[in-house]
Automatic annotation (TrEMBL), chain A:
PROSITE patterns: HSP70_3. SUPFAM superfamilies: Actin-like ATPase domain, Heat shock protein 70kD (HSP70), peptide-binding domain. Residues 1-24 are annotated as: Disordered. GO terms for molecular function: ATP binding; ATP-dependent protein folding chaperone. The lineage of its organism: Eukaryota, Viridiplantae, Streptophyta, Embryophyta, Tracheophyta. It comes from Adiantum capillus-veneris. This is Heat shock 70 kDa protein 8. Signal peptide: none annotated. InterPro entries: ATPase_NBD (IPR043129), Heat_shock_70_CS (IPR018181), HSP70_peptide-bd_sf (IPR029047), Hsp_70_fam (IPR013126). Pfam families: HSP70. Belongs to the heat shock protein 70 family. Keywords: ATP-binding, Nucleotide-binding.
TrEMBL record, chain B:
Signal peptide: none annotated. It holds the Pfam family DUF7148. This is J domain-containing protein. It comes from Adiantum capillus-veneris. It comes from the Eukaryota.
Length: 580, 441
């Protein structure tokens, strides 16, 4: 009934198609935790007062997350083993998570073009064309579809283990994922028949696990315990995230979170490029297959070299190019020099996180390194050095910590309680990005600040920019740049029917609300001074509303309305007096 | 009804009972809307200056660690991961309070602004006087309330031991305080009162309670540079309450020239009512119909008596809301009629009630419990007890209000009463006219 006072502009239905089914869930069904990485995936569940990481029929707890399009029914690495030859033949697609929700102008998409499967771009801001080679035919697919196939198999596996249907899940995601990418991930889950209970940045899942460990250690000792500050560094194949959490009494409060789309894949690619460049200069003038084709052959070898360098000081890269055998010894120093850029970006991420979390290095109690790439000695030493030369925390399996945390969050969010108090836990999430609107031309006005605690709500008042303005365009962005157009567009809508008045008179009240499951709502109302009730029906919009191609929308808005002030809004200076 | 206001009076944060929470998710949504629409008002004319210290339950000079600890403990209780969607608004407040109080800059600004707000309005740093008591009213409706004079309290905890639902220790101040009026049995409370070695627990008029509790909070002292300042409370709170009442009455008289800054409790109530209406959406007319109309039958002898005894400050205090004299030989038949009426009433869906209710037969009558079901959790919002009783001057059909809502009218109460009257007097009345599509609750 209450909605009669405002009309709701729901976002595209496909974004959250299974939300309604939540109420039909039986309250005791536990959500599983899924860590869906760009190269590997795993699933865990809270059972019998502990987290159980499930294994597939081949007893693998960490399964490759590629999808093989060999026969009529595509299968993923969860159920079927795959040879390296098949993986790099173009039949399999393996970096779907990196491609998810990205426009083809994105740098990450450009680097994926070196992969053996087909990634076609037109560089216009549309979705890249993704295809796998099936019996000599390029068959198109989408990143969502690829992830959904993996999720379906993970779900089937979990159901086989648990003996009942699995309807909901907590997924970990990279901290750098934009809200638009999150909707794509939710879409993939919906295709797999899974309801996403929470999407949590990977390091925050680890923070939850840490909080539990801490509480276990203190159990019987003292009630709430001492507060511990912990830095969590998570690096995988495609993404790298850092978070700072303060934990005490089973509550882990995320103070800052930051992420970047760099990872092991980029390091391997750098190594491959380095070797191939050397090769090209050595055999000048000799024609051969295009560069990217060669790259696909060297990647598996280079990956092995990278793994070997984690334990030994040097390794030999052996491969065959144009029937010519290459054998090249790579030392650890050389590898680090090649990847200097990536190491610098990792360090910057840690520094940025420490600064934003207002944490001094001395107050850190523990440094947790998780994820496959955290085994790289250079990255380890770099992160530990940035944290003041601390020792790495050894309590967790670095490859399973995230999925364990997700399983725990799944149990908590499903409302499960544990008599032994082991689930007496809570994560207070932080906003990974600022969310705001465009004001005064191209200025970005953040409404909800980065690293603010979730749930968050704030309202601001904006006003019209010229006399007798009757329409205003509200454009919502996510990001940190002060220029709105450099941020991620989340959606836009027009307020119409504002009573004509001198500029600065109508009060457009805009409220942004993020709830615990990270759903962003924007509610806008127009008030006139002296009138108690809003003069127009309120508009409530669930963001993001845009469906595709960020680049296009931003450019189209700019070209059509950018220079005209006719739909612009201006921030209203705060009236003097008390403000809450 | 105050529990639905986005401009929450501080009394609703004070307890963790269901009073401070919205009814369901749908309500939470309307709150956003109302909040957005009343934003301008809340920026300029919002008199409910939020007391962040109160929300977190820490003293004004609490250290960073204390604030963090309190924040964590409260989050563990109210975070939507644990409390469900109902915890959303409370968590928002906690986040807001935490953010302000943990940043030196913001905390200073907040102190300044709250102090400023206080001086402009002549009162308060812990929020302006809202007209609501801090303690919740969980027991039956009575003309008297319990109040601890914290200036005299020595923190012996005797009262807390004897009546732990009613009294609680404020660990920051080291004194006892009433958190929930009449939450324990009368005998327990009596024992608690007698156990107090300094006799600092008083029975006070219910109408005085908000003022007394408000004045008992430490207030900021005006400071001159580095001298003075700090926090204090009146040494004789009862004297201060009298002065305060006079001030309020004076401002009532001169309120034609009053600006928003000196909003009186009356204005505040009007504003909050308006706000409430907006939220209630299509139901507001029904609600206001139920709440505003004078109840012609409510002035009973009981009430007159209550007024004679305690009516120093206006309102009647009994929780009997409806009384009808019945012929004593008809009594069993009326009980039957009422029970039958209630059963059909509860199962019919054509009545325009904001909340569904269930009917349970009790001896001599029926109990109507208003329930709200959200997310599979069914919660009682209070109940109406309809009984036929014998009193000193004859048999009466009585409707009494009970449950968590205290003094406020229950949603749809008026409709129920009207229907009851019709049923008892044998008249049929069509309610189809008021038919509104029901909400999904």
């Amino acid at each position: 009934m209450a909605e009669q006072s405002g009309y709701t502009v729901a976002s595209d239905g496909e974004n959250n198609p299974v939300e309604e089914s939540q109420s039909s869930l039986s309250p005791l069904q536990t959500a599983v935790g899924i860590d869906l990485g760009s190269r590997f995936c795993s699933v865990a569940v809270w059972r019998d007062s502990k987290v159980e990481v499930l294994s597939n029929p081949r007893s693998l707890r960490r399964m490759p997350s590629h999808v093989l399009f060999k026969s009529d029914i595509p299968c993923s690495g969860v159920s079927a083993p795959i040879s390296d030859v098949e993986l790099y033949s173009g039949t399999a697609i393996y970096r779907a998570k990196c491609l998810l929700g990205r426009a083809d102008t994105d740098q990450v998409v450009q680097t994926c073009k070196n992969c053996p499967f087909l990634v076609q771009t037109l560089d216009i801001g549309a979705r890249p064309f993704l295809a796998a080679l099936v019996d000599g035919v390029w068959r198109s697919t989408t990143p969502e579809e690829v992830l959904a196939i993996v999720l379906v198999e993970l779900r089937a596996m979990a159901e086989a283990h648990l003996g009942h249907t699995v309807r909901s899940a907590v997924l970990t995601m990279p901290a750098s994922f934009s809200r638009f990418q999150q909707t794509r991930l939710e879409r993939a889950c919906a295709m797999a028949g899974l309801h996403v209970l929470r999407l949590m940045p990977e390091p925050t899942a680890v923070a939850l696990l840490y909080a539990q460990e801490q509480q276990k250690a203190l159990h019987g000792n003292m009630g709430s315990g001492i507060e511990k500050n912990v830095l969590i560094f998570n690096a995988g194949a495609g993404f790298c995230d850092v978070a700072i959490a303060a934990t005490a009494g089973g509550v882990s409060q995320i103070r800052a979170v930051a992420g970047d789309s760099i990872g092991g894949d980029a390091m391997v690619q750098n190594l491959v490029n380095h070797v191939l460049n050397e090769y090209a200069s050595s055999v000048e003038g000799k024609s051969g297959p295009p560069f990217s084709k060669l790259s696909a052959q060297v990647v598996p070898v280079a990956e092995k070299v990278m793994h070997a360098l984690s334990t030994s000081a040097s390794a030999v890269l052996e491969c065959e190019i144009h029937e010519r055998r290459i054998s090249r010894s790579i030392t650890r120093e050389e590898f680090e020099r090649i990847n200097e850029d990536i190491l610098k970006r990792c360090e910057a991420l840690v520094m940025q996180c420490l600064q934003q979390g207002q944490t001094i290095v001395d107050s850190l109690d523990d440094v947790i390194l998780v994820g496959g790439v955290s085994n790289v000695p250079a990255i380890r030493s770099l992160v530990l050095k940035a944290c003041g030369g601390k020792q790495a925390y050894k309590g967790f399996n670095p490859l399973e910590a995230a999925v364990q945390g997700a399983a725990m969050e799944g149990a908590i969010a499903s409302g499960l309680t544990d008599s032994s108090g082991r689930l007496d836990l809570l994560t207070i999430q932080a906003m990974p990005h600022s969310v705001g609107i465009r004001v005064s031309g191209d200025e970005f006005l953040p409404v909800l600040q980065k690293n603010g605690a979730i749930p968050a709500r704030r309202d601001i008042v904006v006003t019209t920019s010229y006399d007798k303005q009757t329409e205003a365009l509200i454009i919502v962005y996510e990001g940190e740049s002060r220029q709105a157009s450099e941020n991620h567009l989340l959606g836009f809508f027009k307020l119409t029917g504002i009573p004509p008045a001198p500029k600065g008179t109508p009060l457009i009240s805009l409220c942004m609300d993020v709830d615990a499951s990270d759903v962003l709502r924007v509610v806008v109302g127009v008030c006139m001074p002296g009138v108690e009730k809003p003069v127009l029906p309120l508009v409530e919009v669930r963001m993001p509303t845009i469906d595709d191609g960020h680049g296009w929308c931003t450019d189209a808005i700019r070209s059509k309305y950018g220079l005209l002030l006719e739909l612009d809004v201006l921030p209203l200076p705060k009236p003097p007096g008390p403000s809450a | 009804m105050t529990s639905c206001s986005p401009l929450l009076p501080s009394s609703t944060f004070h307890t963790s009972s269901s009073r401070g929470r919205p009814l369901c998710r749908k309500w939470a949504l309307t709150r956003i809307i109302a909040h957005a629409s009343s934003n301008r008002m809340s920026l300029s004319a919002d008199a409910t200056h939020k007391d962040y210290y109160e929300i977190l339950g820490v003293s004004v000079d609490a250290s960073y660690e204390e604030i963090r600890k309190a924040y964590r403990l409260l989050q563990k209780k109210h975070h939507p991961d644990i409390a469900g969607p109902e915890g959303h608004p409370m968590t928002l407040l906690l986040n807001e309070a935490y953010q302000t109080l943990t940043s030196d800059e913001l905390r200073h600004a907040y102190r300044f602004s709250s102090f400023n707000a206080g001086t402009v309005r002549n009162e308060s740093a812990s929020g302006p006087f809202t007209g609501f008591a801090y303690s919740s009213w969980n027991g039956p409706d009575r003309p008297q309330a319990i109040f601890v004079d914290e200036n005299s309290c020595i923190g012996c905890r005797e009262c807390v031991f004897n009546a732990r639902r009613t009294f609680a220790m404020d660990e920051a101040c080291g004194t006892a305080r009433v958190t929930s009026q009449w939450a324990d049995s009368d005998s327990q409370i009596k024992v608690a009162l007698e156990a107090c070695p300094v006799n600092c627990i008083h029975y006070v008029d219910k109408e005085d309670l908000p003022i007394l509790e408000y004045l008992m909070r430490p207030q900021p002292k005006a400071s001159n540079g580095v001298y003075g300042g700090g926090w204090e409370r009146p040494s004789n709170v009862f004297m201060a309450a009298n002065t305060f009442k006079r001030k309020i009455n004076a401002s009532f008289k001169s309120n034609d020239t009053a600006s928003w800054r000196t909003e009186t409790p009356g204005q505040q109530k009007a504003r909050m009512d308006a706000d409430f209406k907006m939220k209630a959406g299509a139901f507001w007319w029904l609600w206001s119909w139920g709440m505003r109309r004078p109840e012609p039958n409510s002035k009973t002898k009981h009430e007159e008596k209550a007024r004679d005894w305690f009516g120093l400050f206006g309102r009647s205090c009994t929780s009997d809301i409806f009384k009808l004299a019945v012929n004593s030989n008809e009594a069993p038949k009326i009980v039957e009629v009422v029970q039958e009426w209630a059963m059909t009433f509860a199962s019919s869906s054509e009545l325009p009630l904001p909340l569904p209710f269930k009917a349970d037969a009790v001896s001599n009558g029926v109990q109507l419990t208003l329930i709200s079901a959200s997310n599979g959790i069914v919660e009682s919002k209070g109940s109406l007890l309809v009984t036929v009783k014998e009193e000193e001057d004859g048999m009466f059909l009585t409707v009494e209000r009970a449950g968590v809502t205290g003094t406020g009218a229950l949603p749809g109460e008026r409709t129920i009463l009207q229907h009851l009257k019709d049923a008892v007097s044998g008249r049929e009345k069509s309610y189809k006219f008021y038919h509104i599509p029901r909400t999904s609750t």
